[in-house]
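REQUEST FORM: STRUCTURE PREDICTION
Request ID: SP-0412
Submitted by: Lab K.M.
Chain count: 1
Length (residues): 122
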Amino acid sequence: MIVRVKGDERILGDGEFVAALLLEANEQLERRYELKGLGYDLKKIGQRVSKIYGIKKEEIYSKGRRKVQVEARDLLCYWTVRKIGMSCTDVAKRLGMSQPGVGYAVSRGEKIAKKHKYQLHE
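STATUS: Completed
RESULT:
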């Protein structure tokens, strides 16, 4: 009798590990579709971030280096890339940043969101 184990040769681990990874990936996709269904895009995320930081949306998109602007931009990049799945390249074009700059901003934004327990939707 042949026993088939769910697995993927590109992923090291047993069938349970692979199943858990696939389940997590599926949940992330479902959350992205839910957020997009609620109308979340760069503009709506920018409105949410400007509300959190108490600054005008235009300040987030401007090239300023004030701490509040940088943190707001980092949070915007994190939510846009990780929560709704926009590419770093697209975000960079829309914000006038470099693609690596957006990548760094995503990392910083994730730390900010966790530290302050910020949620994308209220």
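NOTES: The two ends are 53 Å apart (CA to CA).
Reviewed by: T.R.
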